[in-house]
Amino acid sequence: GEMDKPWESIEEDESGNIKHNKTLYVRRRMEAEEEERVVRRGVIRYVYVILDFSEGASEKDVHPSRHALMLETLYDFLHSFFDQNPLSQMGIVVTRDSAAEKLVAFTANPQALQNTVEELYLATGSGAPSIENALNRVISSFEDVPGYASRELLVLYNSLHSCDPGNVTDVIKECVERRIRCSVVGLGAELFILRKLARDTHGVYNVCLNEQHYRDVVLAQLTPPPSPAFMEHEETAELILMGFPHQQRGGATLCFCHRKEKRQTNEGYFCPRCHAKYCSLPTVCQVCSLTLVASPHLARSYHHLFPLGRFEQVEEDTPQEDPSCFGCCMPIQGDTDLPLRCPKCRQVFCMECDYFIHKSLHNCPGCA
Amino acid sequence: FFFGVMSATSAPERTLLVVIVDVNSHNWGQVPHKVTFDNMLQHLMFCLNAHLQLNAANTLALIASDHNRSEIVFPCDSFMPNNDHVLYFDDVKDAVLQQLHAFVESSSLAGSTRKMGRSTLSSALSHALCYINRIVAASPDTACRVVAITVSPDTSSQYISIMNNIFSACKLQVAIDGCVLGACHSSFLQQAAELTGGAYSKPTS
Question: Which residue among A9, A27, A103, A174 has the highest number of C-beta atoms inside a 10 angstrom radius?
Fold first, then answer.
């Protein structure tokens, strides 16, 4: 059939430099729309990632292979997940050979998860995936999760079939009862059973067209999902007990997080309730189960709860020579750049600043 | 390979220093130890001169912050930055002083006394980071630093904005230094310095 020719969409200006692609900008703005809504979100997330490591993972229809794409994207996802959701925990389950294996239980330590992903890179897919076994494996783990937390599953699926011992729909009903929100990202084609899983649990199901789409869809899961309507009526805890330890220095003492290695350090964080020592935050005290955090960790989630509104395109009826961007004071060249206006302070920004403001900064320089 | 690639920590080609100067006249009037705005400017000029001397490719930017607005005063329309252009301190000094003067002159004195005491630190930091983002996109081997010289106390409603600025600065690997000349400590700048690896100081004399 027709070959995709992305090089044909590149344009050059008089001096041979490549012109900025405005369609890229449009795509970015579409992403921003979803994140803009001010809704109640579960910021404390407990997420299990289910990886499909069956034969389907070795397919090479995406570059370099489905399994490589899945792991690369997961690696980046992990890295950003704890940055944007510092109070959350994640675990990894792998399904292959008609069975499911829990590789990492819920942890707030991104290093352990990254090490696992690196090891998986060397493994190969085999056998058939099993949705039922994978779901059964994780359902019991969600029992210990506190009531105020958001329970989620992210399934990265690469096959067109599933080998299940019993009735998958029963397991799906159990997920619904336990309020576990399952989202699926698939490669290949859409499966009815995965569509049912996502729909019944209020998750999203996407089947991806190419590598960039896959990446965008998985990274879209970084934003905490809006709390579904049923949670509004539940008696969720209004106040959550958390500890805010200060770093203290003293003599060399053992810490709880490295007790197997018997590591002694002079400084650490002491749990305000039981005075157990930990090397880093955030963590959950292993003695008294108190969540230990520092205030910047809470602040990292604020931009999800108070998102910045979208900037509007400036109307062309008042043509003037290139205006300057209010953010970086560089001129906005009319042919390659789009001026955008903040609805509150009415200042004009260039495309680059607009992207930076909405993706990273979450603050408008004009609205003091 | 993807997992093992660590960026080489080689010496940066050039350094960009962004200075945020608080020109809130209401708060400058209440500074203890008889430090005046002109004193501060003199010392600042020495530092800028030293910065530009350290490396021919070093650049700088200046942001002035008042009670209701903050703007990038240097580089300005008459002095746009150019990667090949070496900044000579003589040219820079005149432009900076002129622009600062114009900014202060144009600040409006209308408004209640309560509002006059506010600072727009979060807006100034946002400007600084937008500018840095633009410069780093053009020349990625630039090391960047932000120095904030303030006299105003913290405005607590800006907490969320300042935390967002700090996290963005961490991602861009920009250190934020704070120099507080006012009467009270600024916990915002203390946090900023700690989280971004900058320095915080409140001189006592």
Answer: A103
